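Narrative summary of target 7.
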Amino acid sequence: MSRTYAGILLGALVLSFAVVAGGQPTTEAGGFSELHRAAVADPTNSESVMGLIEREGESTTPKHYHPGGEFGFVLEGVVSVEAEGKQSTTLSAGDSFYQPPGEWHIISTGAAGAKTIVFRVLQKGQPMVVTVE
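Modeled conformation, tokenized:
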């Protein structure tokens, strides 16, 4: 694993301790740049999972949701997110996002595909992804 990806993974871990939703990236002393902040569920009996998602070009996920919240950071490429009750959003490399627990969404990629780091917080024993029919 390259130092760049290791640094991004560490940054995603830091995101898991966020408390309040919204805002633009801010830089603090020591070089820390906040990328995204959102409320998380009570951590009692919770576990966290961090992963790298590599999507091929021109791909679309099934409609799905995550029982726990999902923080993400786009490493490469472009993704479009269609989410429950929201206008479609396009995210590029360097953008961060948060999907609230239980909110369905569909992810599509551009021709070049995309790489995204995600960090999920969920109750032990819950599935990470639930497909919506």
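The helical segments are 3-15.
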